[in-house]
Amino acid sequence: MTPPLSRRAVLQTAILAAAAPGVACAAAGRAGAATLPAPSAWTLRPFQLKEVALSEGLFAAKRALMLDHGRGYDVNRLLQVFRANAGLSTLGAVAPGGWEGLDGEANGNLRGHYTGHFLTMLAQAYGSTGEQAYADKIGSMVGALTEVREALRHDPAVLSVAGRFGTGAEQVRGSYQYLDLPTDVLGGASAITLSAWVKPAHDANWGRVFDFGNDTTRYLYLAARNASGAPRFAITTGGPGGEQGLDGAAALPLNAWSHLAVTIAGGTGTLYVNGTAVARNTAMTLTPAALGALKNNWLGRSNYATDPVFAGAFDEFNVWSRALTADEITALQSGRAADASTGRGDLASYAFDETTGDTFADASGRGLDAVLRRTWGGPSHPGFLAAYPETQFILLESMTSGDYTKVWAPYYTAHKILRGLLDAYLCTDDARALDLASGMCDWMYSRLSRLPGTTLQRMWGIFSSGEFGGIVEAICDLHALTGKAEHLALARLFDLDKLIDACAAGDDTLDGLHANQHIPIFTGLLRLYDSTGEQRYLSAARNFWDMVVPVRMYGIGGTSTGEFWKARGVIAGTIGATDAETCCAYNMLKLSRMLFFHTRDPKYMGYYERALYNQVLGSKQDKADAEKPLVTYFIGLTPGHVRDYTPKQGTTCCEGTGMESATKYQDSVYFKAADGSALYVNLYSPTTLTWAEKGVTVTQTTDYPRQQGATLTIGGGSAAFELRLRVPSWATDGFRVTVNGRAVSGTPVAGRYFTVSRTWRRGDVVRVAVPFRLRVEKALDDPSLQTLFYGPVNLVARNTSASFLPFGLYRNAALSGDLLPTLTPVTGKPLHYVLDGTEFAPFFEGTADPTHAYFRRAEPLVVFGGHDSGVANPAGEDGTTLLDEIWAGAPFSGKGALLSRVRATVDAWVAAGLLGEADGEKVVETARNASYAS
User: Rounded to 5 degrees, what are φ and ψ at 378?
Assistant: First the structure.
């Protein structure tokens, strides 16, 4: 259950809901849903997810897999890194690992991002289905994040756990907490015993049980694990080279209590583990007395900054000013020191009985109370919320080049969390989520507004470390909700002027840039245009899109190779195993959608169909999994590539956006004109639209793209509006529309919208025929390297070969120019075909088959209708062949038109010396004797 909204939030929601149709995903059955006001610059409006219900079909089947994943995943695992950072109990949860854990790539410096993606996925799942389980998970996560933010605003507090004999103090890994002891804790003793009960929770080497020193020159320490994994004690006045040490023989067990003790007296040092002496050094001439006054006296922290903080629990730490005997050490194994003959340590003694606060009482009688602290200081500044300290944000401000092992895109991660919170608020009305989101932006503004413009420009231009994702779009959405001037000002602080100005001027500077670092910038610029009216933002976004599509786009709609862009027009030259990062397709869809809202240019929705029906659908494996979303990172286009649905170490950015994509497939099927005068049908997909303002429903029945068309049935009342049906750019012939069985007059134009205007009534039926044809698309830099499409569907060859496969397609081409007759359909498998013994299948099928997205076009002989002329197929200087030239004239009205084209082309090629006259006549005769499909 989420808490009730405040009166202020209720009023705000009501105002915003009345202002304009929402762009969010409020679930059915919940009153007063929060909505974002649509910008006045938008000529179109989207529908909420709840208003477009997916019916059985390709999209619903893919979505069901992700819904199951979201429904079953334990969100406490995602919250683990947040709670750990705040020093809160992690409830025994295990972090997901990969990028969302301390052991992942770059030390887990991106942790927290995946939680934001997951919140968005849950919000969309709830918005689409209304299933309470998703809302409950959102409420749980928002509540936990609220607790995390509150904890970060205060000094750390003891986290009590069951100790060896009584109460222990847990140091959660990722909390960066340690105990700070007073300066005189060692008392300058010439003989000493240090004793501690520890329960290690992680196997990192060099985590300190204690470390007393001034720097890395004078110190003594006890590490739970040395380089070999065994305990080590050392003392030195000359740095690591002068250490006098004691090394254990075996590792301490994880998640179990072990007793460690060190004694020094008379030149001998001894290390005990669980009461047994495991190491002795009879040349240990140094004692605490030789170290002098020490300023850093820590439990759990090292004087070496790169060493990990101890992760685990402490119980009883005692320091005596003498060397205990072996029998006395043995006696400490069975009870507290207070109950043993030794008594408590006379130099320092901590029992860790405290259950609140940040101070641990010293029972030695010397009053040396210890204080719990964080390595990064604290508390954090108001509004800050993350799964790691503020340090990455701080370090970024002085960086001049990227190093993700130190700083990995902190504002990118902030974006994912911010976006997730906004979506949680918009879909569940939980005011806490809005408060968290607003607080994050208040914190960012307080930090960034103080920095010089030159610093900001340098930060945002740094690869990886300076990446900030779609944060500008999210901040503008927040500003639309809060109206705070600081929030709009914050959005503009992310302007990367060099990029914006170049794109606004039409200068293509994308070569060498990281693709996904930059694509979402332009969605943010569009939202800034909406808020400010500054034309350069809109111009930059429009020009940028044209710098990617089609000149840096693969056939499936994806872009980038190895995450980066190369020179425009280089497609064949970039094909490899790390093409088409899935996040890029996700963000290009968002950008295309928003550009369409502004311009209504059909090319944006044409791209949307391409990328959605191919890369996005194909990036999700057709398999259930409770642990992973099973989404690709890269989609290799190299021959024989097998898609990896469990990429890298897991919880990657692409798995995050993949979860989002799979729960919003229906978000762009329909749009409405801003004035309500028209309904745009952008995609053919089995759905039911509820258009409340018009009092009608539109039910689209289809198995598209397995079916070549769709039926739309009007329900509800009657309403007058234009029905605008998208005519795909590839639908060059045969697109037809009937209403109630009667053909609609007009000429559909490929790549445009076909309009049917009338007063619609309940029971009206619109049938749309969208004939497919098989066609190729050529790589811009190598026309012989091609990819195959049937209608909107990219067909890939399934073959283990690691070389480009050669295929010819003209041998049975139809008069329409359709190449499909050359292929043989596979019975019982829609959209599956065989050519020369190799099966072709839809790219959208999420299988683990080796695939060839591109093939080498090979038409060595002139063949018509299966008749071989025996004549070699000649080519001109540009690579265009005789058959290419002939079939470029398709469609043909009949065989006679084709023969006229053959004669004219042959005569021209003979005249140009590219074809012998006798061979030319053979070609004409073969074409005349062949039969053709229409």
Answer: 130, 175
Cα 261–chain centre separation: 47
* pLDDT at residue 16, as a whole number: 34
Q: Is the pLDDT of residue 30 over 60?
A: no
Task: Order the strands of the 709-716 sheet from edge to edge.
Answer: 52-54, 687-691, 696-701, 709-716, 765-769, 736-739, 742-743
What is the Cα–Cα distance from 408 to 793, expressed in whole angstroms? 37
118 has which bridge partners? Answer: none
Which residue type sits at 156?
A: P
pTM value is: 0.94
Return the closest-CA partner of residue 760 out of 723, 719, 722.
719
The share of the chain scoring above pLDDT 90, in percent, equals 95
Q: How confident is the model at residue 34 (pLDDT cuts 50, 70, 90)?
A: confident
Which residues contact residue 878 at a Cβ distance below 8 angstroms, ignoring those fewer than 6 apart?
Answer: none
Q: Assess whether pLDDT exceeds 60 at residue 6.
A: no
As a whole number of angstroms, the longest Cα–Cα distance in the chain is 115
Backbone torsions φ then ψ of 18, nearest 5 degrees: -80, -20
DSSP 459: H
Q: Which residues contact 142 (CB under 8 A, 6 or more apart)?
A: 2, 421, 424, 430, 432, 433, 436
Q: Please compute the mean of the pLDDT values over residues 424-449 and round it to a whole number.
A: 97
CA atoms within 13 A on the CB side of 245: 17
Other Cβ atoms less than 10 A from the Cβ of 628: the count is 18
- Residue 94 confidence (pLDDT) above 60: yes
Q: Quote the CA–CA distance of 532 and 243 in Å, as a whole number.
A: 64
Q: 318 with 337: CB under 8 angstroms?
A: yes
pLDDT at residue number 612: 98
Q: Give CA–CA dist 376/329, Å, rounded.
A: 36
CB 688 within 8 A of CB 88: no
Instruction: Provide the 10 A C-beta neighbour count for residue 782.
Output: 17
Q: Alpha-carbon dihedral of residues 727, 732, 733, 739, nearest 10 degrees?
A: 10
DSSP alpha helix (H) spans, 703-755? none
Element (H, E) at 869: strand 867-872
Task: Report the alpha-carbon distance of residue 319 to residue 926 in Å, rounded.
Answer: 101
| Strands 765-769 and 774-779, sheet pairing | unpaired
What average pLDDT does the segment 60-64 reach?
98
204 and 326 Cβ atoms separated by less than 8 Å: no
Question: Would you list the DSSP string of 159-217?
Answer: -EEE-SSSEEEEE-TTS-EEEE--GGGGTT-SSEEEEEEEEE----TT-EEEEEESSSS
Closest C-alpha among 21, 145, 143, 131 to residue 83: 145
**What are the tens digits of pLDDT across the range 371-407?**
999 999 889 999 999 999 999 999 999 999 999 999 9
**What's the token pair of residue 396?**
């970024």
Residue 801 has pLDDT above 80, yes or no: yes
pLDDT digits (tens, 9 = 90+) for 148-192: 999 999 999 999 999 999 899 999 999 999 999 999 999 999 999
The 10s digit of each residue's pLDDT in 610-653 is: 999 999 999 999 999 999 999 999 999 999 999 999 998 899 99
pLDDT tens per residue, range 282-334 = 999 999 999 999 999 999 999 999 999 999 999 999 999 999 999 999 999 99
Cis ω for the linkage preceding 792 (within 30 of 0): no
| CA angle, residues 773, 777, 783, in degrees to nearest 5 | 140
Residue 407 token pair:
């700083």
- What is each CA distance from 886 to 729, 757, 880, 899, 904, in whole angstroms? 22, 40, 10, 9, 9
Tokens 């690869």 -> residue: 463
- Sign of the torsion angle spanned by Cα atoms 639, 640, 642, 648: negative
The number of angstroms, rounded, from the C-alpha of 170 to the middle of its chain's C-alpha atoms is 32
Amino acid at position 656, single letter: G
DSSP string for residues in 222-271: EES--TTSS-EEEEESS-GGG-EEEE-SSPPPTTS-EEEEEEEETTEEEE
